[in-house]
Amino acid sequence: MRARLAVAVAFVAGVVATALLARARVAIVLVVCEALFAALAALWVSPTWRAAHPVATRLAQTVMTVDALGVVSAFVSTSVNGNLEAGVSMTIVLLGLSFLTGSSGQISLGHGAFMGVGAFAAAIWANHHAHSPIVIALLAAVVAGAAVGFLLGLPATRLRGPYLAGMTLAFAVAFGSILNAFSSWTGGDSGLQLPTAVSAPRWLVDLLPPSDSPLAAATVWLSQISLVVAGVALFAMSNLFASRVGRSMRLVRDHDVAAELAGVSLPRARVVAFVISAAYAALGGALSTLVNNSVSPATYGFALSITILALMVIGGIGTIPGAMIGGLIFAYSTSSISWITARLGLNPQGNLASQLNGIIFGVLLVGAIVAAPMGIAGAGRQLARRWRERHHLRAN
Amino acid sequence: MNAFLTSRPVSDILTGVTNGVVYALVALSLVLIWRSARLLNFAQGAMAMIATYVGFVAIAPHANYWVAMVVSIVAGCLIGALTERGLVRWLYGKPELNPVVAMVGFLLVLESVAAAIWSTSSRGLPSSFSPIDWQLGGRPLALSPFAAYEIVTALLVMGFIAGLFRFTKLGLRLRAAALAPEVSRLLGVRVNRMLTIGWVLSSGVGAVTAVLVASNYFTGLTPTAMDGVFAFGFIAAAIGGLDSPGGALASGVTLGIVLQFVSDYVNANDVILVALGLLIVSLMVRPNGVFTRDAQRRV
Question: What pLDDT digit, counting tens, does each position of A2-39 carry?
């Protein structure tokens, strides 16, 4: 209760600060929006309101997260914004994989390739329809991802864990050749360039202090788009986790025979999980394409798929905070590793420095699955429970 | 006769068999572990690759090819035993996804460490067999001394494993421990030791495979040399059935031949696509493999 109140008060304070700092006329619209969000935050503090309106609670949480990060993104440097965008795209991918594993108990070693499907679908769409809105390109990527996910998910109707994992691994290994087979569409080894860079709208440029370069406004705009898309994905996923579909899938994961007896169609549940998961991965890939303004097949190799798996396990399987932690780790992995390289005095072009990423992620992945299979989110939850119990005991 | 032996389909079959025996060896190696531990070893290729590096680069860089090969096999067996004792032992009895994740993580560690120590550039192994095809009546037969060496070595390994399982007491214990661990333990079989021996055998087979792959003049030894071979080997094992060693060998060789025909008549780039398609279709039609008798899964 007290912690939630603190969050809400901090949020309202942030809103007021934004309103004071914003200068352009469009700021009034923003202030109204922020006031609405603040009202939502105030409602969110009340436990009875949260109990009575679960969907609105999730909406409030999503809106507050997205809005807080959105405000932050306007005040931080271009490189931090770049990290934010990378982390947000990866969070969406991780939400998808987490849903697959956490809800239906399947695993994919090919989510890097699903991400690639979305990335290329968005780029191909943008190249054929240069003036269509971003939303359409993202939707095209989602549809493409869902279609490929359906195709690969079909065997999942009859398969169990390790076989399916091997099949997705084969997909990840084959992805480069698949792209090559359609090289007239995908541009072969060199990949694709987007026809136009995503540029910031006029009002945002006006809103930001004039000292900032136009590049910074564009960066902020990309962050805002990423955050809003991620917010939509997050809201949908949190509802899905709690919905009838999510519950029936957890039953499939925990006891498939019991699920069947309870009237859940196993093949359908497994394929649906696969389709949703692939669509999320594709959305994340498409978003990163928009941010980078180009797409190259080398990015979406098998290594990326393992990295995604590692991020999910380290963050925490099957939880939304786990996916966010994974995204955060991804966003700062490159800079942390170059920091470690510098600290250890390694040659940045040397063999060890270039492999440090793989070594660290691999060791963390093995260590996490052996010692802490629920990842950071699971460990955090356990700590919080222990702390609450002790607190409770003292209060009594 | 000469014209027939050098014709296009026969050439494809010969090349296909040469590729296929390698897939069959990888599949065999996966089946050996799957049968005893119900675990799909995703790090199989990487473990074998490390063993080859240890034999040919770390311990015996200037030695005779055969000495280095023996060192590699011994190293492979050791790596298998260490992996089972040090890592896999922690995973028995956990949900079936945990070993998958752990072995994928192990794969990443092994490949990164190999690249950190020995760099990603390719090394040739000094095999004494020529990769140039024999000539038959002025036309090339799609079989070189090196290909013959590959096939013969693979057959020897397969024969060794089959003989071990069929004709020795150790083989009987290994089979018993895999099929009915509780009963075998009561009858005095040391099931844990049998599991370790299973990993030793599988990794030994893997080391031979990696030496064969890396001895190929065109690929050489790189930290990721086994990735593609592993994918094909897994596809062969899954099509044949992870429970059936004979099925794994047969489908490995068949897969090699089919893919060679695809590569020759369609497009070399589409080979992995066709393999993926075959895998999906075969898993949908017979999820437990073509060569496995249907069994009810225990709940």
Answer: 777 777 777 777 666 666 665 555 667 777 777 788 88
Q: Is residue B44 part of a domain?
A: yes
**Between residues B79 and B176, which one has the greater pLDDT?**
B79
Domains delineated in chain A? 77-395 (1.10.3470)
Contact status, residue A90 vs residue A98, Cβ threshold 8 Å: no
- How far B129 CA sits from the closest chain A CA (Å)? 30
**What is the 3-state secondary structure of A203-218?**
HHHHHCCCCCCHHHHH
Mean of all residue pLDDT scores within chain A: 85
Q: What confidence tens digit (pLDDT) does each residue in A269-288 have?
A: 888 999 999 999 999 999 99
**What does the pLDDT look like over A64-118, one tens digit per residue?**
888 888 878 877 888 888 899 999 999 999 999 999 988 888 889 999 999 999 9
The pLDDT of residue A344:
87
A184 at B interface, C-beta within 8 A: no
Hey, what are A311's tokens?
């991020």
- Is the Cβ of B89 closer than 8 Å to some Cβ of chain A? no
In angstroms, the CA A65 to CA A14 distance is 12
The answer to the question of residue B8 being in a domain is: no
Contact status, residue A128 vs residue A322, Cβ threshold 8 Å: no
User: Does B274 map to a domain?
Assistant: no
B119 touching A (Cβ < 8 Å): yes
Chain B: closest CA distance from residue A250 (Å):
14
The verdict on residue B281 lying in a domain is no
**CB B112 to CB A173 under 8 A?**
no
Q: Which residues of B touch A181 (CB under 8 A)?
A: 267, 269-270, 273
Q: Give the Cβ contact number of residue A133 at 10 Å.
A: 9
Amino acid letter for position B51 = A
For the stretch B250-289, pLDDT in tens is: 999 999 999 999 999 988 888 888 998 898 888 888 877 7
Indicate the length of chain A as a whole number.
Answer: 396
DSSP H or E run through A295: strand A294-295
Q: Which pLDDT belongs to residue A327? A: 95
ipTM of the complex: 0.88
Of A20 and B141, the one with more pLDDT: B141
Determine, for residues A166 and B284 on separate chains, whether the beta-carbon distance falls below 8 Å. no
- How many domains are contained in chain B? 1
| Structural domain that includes position B207 | 17-132+139-225
Q: Is A223 on the interface with B (CB under 8 A)?
A: no
For residue A194, what pLDDT is reported? 83
d(CA A227, CA A220) in angstroms, rounded, equals 10
What CA–CA distance (Å, rounded) separates B292 from B289?
Answer: 6
Dig out the tokens for A97 from the structure. 């994989």
- Give every CB contact of residue B240 below 8 A, 6+ residues apart in sequence: B27, B247, B248, B249, B250, B251, B252, B289, B290, B291
